[in-house]
Fold these 4 entries.
Entry 1:
Amino acid sequence: MDNPYQIIKTIALTEKSHTLLEHNQYSFVVDPAANKMDIKRAVEYLFERKVKAVNVMNRRGKTKRNRYGVGKRADWKRAIVTLKDGQEPITVFT
């Protein structure tokens, strides 16, 4: 994966991600084909911060019933990125 704008889709704003902000960690929704090194390079390029660690989780889409039978939401991947000590925080709310 080359384009950092295709790797990082959005910042995941959840209750857990708000608690992670205290520990200099940020949660992103990323492309399912991206690996840890791709995510690290994309965050360093887009936000100009040094990354200490990247943890990824593959999330399965929920199975939902509708009037046509059973459907499934899309699978997605979440990455929790830890910035190095001394780095300025990423501005999440602007």
Entry 2:
Amino acid sequence: MNSQNKHELIVSGIHLDLTPSLKTFVREKADRLFRHGERIVRLRVELECDRSAAVGMQFKAKGHIEIHGPDMNASVQADECHKAVSMLIDKLDRMLQRRHQLHRVKRNHPRAVELNAEIPKAFA
């Protein structure tokens, strides 16, 4: 991670050896998510390899974003590990953009509030 980046990134492999190049690839792709500002506390990426005979070689990438508010989870499956990571980052990016857009719409459209106080009348 960069020294200017205060976000925590955890990359783990299940039934898969993580090579330094794969870790670097995930880190470079995850930098795109961290541009959303200081809202992301921690990003956890799990890469899993399924070698069952019926399916062939399948890679599953799971992402878990710890954020101020409800956490976000996503999962994708592909036949290549790098492709699964790219698809996962794209999906998480869309989720963060949608969340930001919903908060912005909510912020710009305030709801009416009922007050139980009397409003003083102006003297003419």
Entry 3:
Amino acid sequence: MKARFLTLSQKLSLGGAFIASGLLIALVLLILLEIILRYFFNTSTMRADEYSGYLYLAIVCFGFGYTFLHDGHIRITFLTAKISSKKSSLVDIFAGSITLVLLGFIFYRSVLLVWDSYQTGVVSEAVSATPIFIPQLALPIGIALFMISVIAFLVQRMFHDK
């Protein structure tokens, strides 16, 4: 059961990273298109600035879990480097638990934000008038992937000897 969950967690975080990679390519292509249109044709998409912001948000959010599972987030190791591995695991479990609680709150609030934007029909003030809940969806999805990665981290720390 533990091994299946850890494998699923890794696959989900890799999927998030894959989506983030694709969105990064889309972002670069969008900016290149805007540059070409402005330079050669003296025109604009009128949406590149807005959509590049949405894409950047999604790239960051979808990369949270993958980054965490691959030790890419900032960690304070000066304490854990000087203590035993058992005590280090306890510190990791404590920090991971606090992180999970905070992420749970952020997830809850981000779902409420998306739902409120959907219910009220909020659209962007830009030319595209994009329904704002669509780009906001990246936040709860990314936080959910992050939470799954933190749970996998906790499972590894709690059951590493078993």
Entry 4:
Amino acid sequence: MSSSSFLLGADGLYRCADLQHFLWQSHGFGTRMANPEVDVTLRQVHSDQVLNAHPLRDRQCEGDALVTDDLNRRIGVRTADCVPILLLDAGKRAVGAVHAGWRGTVAGIAARAIEKMHLYFGTHPDDIRAALGPCIRECCYEVGPEVASQFSTLFPEWPPVTGKQNLDLVEANRRHLSAAGVPADQIFDSGLCTVCLAEHFFSYRREPHNPGRMISAIGRLD
């Protein structure tokens, strides 16, 4: 995974500097202060369902990832601790937006999104740039053995799971992306923790009774 600059703009959005090199796209990761404009989102259900946004209205369907190569059609996901992943296909000018909670991560939703981009648009994994935005980090994400045990295959270096475990969802998704063929130096991590950075982000773990939501969105401009 490559280190990358995620810069906070005057509009209150974080952007991945490496994606910004591609002038045909627009993207942003939301904060407490602002969210990017978005045309199509889903009714998220913590699944591995990936949909083509082309025929959809906003919140028309259930699922947890969207892909598109439509012009001026911004797709997005809502998060408040789960990992938002924005995908950019530098070859076919297609994009994806993924909501990866622990259930979706176990199911490999990031890799499923790349499979769907290949099916719909002819995407090659080595053309993908993946930006992983603000989310709960290993420092703040303690889970019970019933959850941790479902990640034991993905983290073979762990000792046998017998109790609580701090879970690194970003690393889990990086491994899925890498296994799907995305080069390591084209996977970019914001390094931003939604729990630690209360002034910037909503967090379900920190505010379970009334968390807000951040939108992460991406679209093709030309």
